[in-house]
Design brief:
One of its GO terms (cellular component) is membrane. Keywords: Membrane, Transmembrane, Transmembrane helix. InterPro entries: MATE_fam. The chain is an all-alpha fold. It has one domain. It contains 6 helices and no strands. It is elongated, with a radius of gyration of 26 Å.
């Protein structure tokens, strides 16, 4: 009643508040998991998981709940939340099964290839026999 005195608006907010709470929870976890996976170099896996979760599960389920079961906005939102929940579970599994020690080794190897040598080493290398003189 802070923004409207309408009983219809109040009932709609009451009806959708649980879905909103679940949405806030999942939408706070899922981007972190996606970021971790992308940061670990799994961009293509995350892209496939995103596409499958939203377009193969979330949207079709939302449309079925909306038009077949006549749930309206609640059905569409619930379907999309199911897609986000699936994506969250799959990304949790992927991150859990990732060998992080191997990822660190790969990163170290990439750093060796991509890191620049300091300029003083390239232009004036110090030899052990030069130091003794």
């Amino acid at each position: 009643y802070l923004f409207s005195n309408s009983k219809e608006v109040s009932e709609a907010v009451d009806d959708l508040s649980m879905i909103l709470a679940v949405s806030i929870l999942l939408n706070s976890i899922q981007p972190i998991l996606s970021g971790v996976a992308v940061g670990a170099g799994m961009q293509s896996i995350v892209a496939v998981v995103n596409l499958a979760s939203y377009y193969a599960v979330g949207i079709p389920l939302g449309l079925i709940l909306t038009y077949v079961f006549h749930l309206g906005v609640k059905g569409l939102w619930s379907g999309m939340l199911a897609g986000i929940a699936l994506q969250t579970v799959v990304l949790c599994y992927i991150i859990y099964k990732t060998d992080w020690e191997l990822e660190v080794k790969k990163t170290r190897e990439r750093m060796k290839v991509w890191s620049l040598k300091p300029s003083h080493e390239e232009s004036n290398p110090i030899r052990e026999d030069d130091e003794s003189k």
